[in-house]
Fold this sequence. Notes:
Helix content: over 70%
Radius of gyration: 14 Å
Number of strands: 0
Oligomer: single chain
Structural class: mainly alpha
Strand content: under 5%
Amino acid sequence: MARRLADANLERATVEDAIERILRAFVAVGDRYAVLTNDQATLEAAHGELAAPLHDVLARGIETGVLRDDLPVEILYEFLAGTILKAIALNQQHRLGLEEASATAASFFLNGTRSRD
């Protein structure tokens, strides 16, 4: 997962594109990510490594006025993490395909967190 996020070049993408890339990366490896959630030690180690790039994108979104600034990065991160987990679940349940789950989740997250200005 960390390699996928690094390959996504999040720092060079717009905030919107970075969030779409994040969601696509997580949903694409969702089956392996779901297995990790059963091992708490592995999950905690992975969280530390995976959270930083997401935090960076969210912080950049707030700084540039793309994302709302009335909530701290940590709260936006929690909403993004929940959106990722739901997109993975919907894909694993074969209710949405990879691209549809990723795109819908990105749209859902961005529409709810866009700057209100």
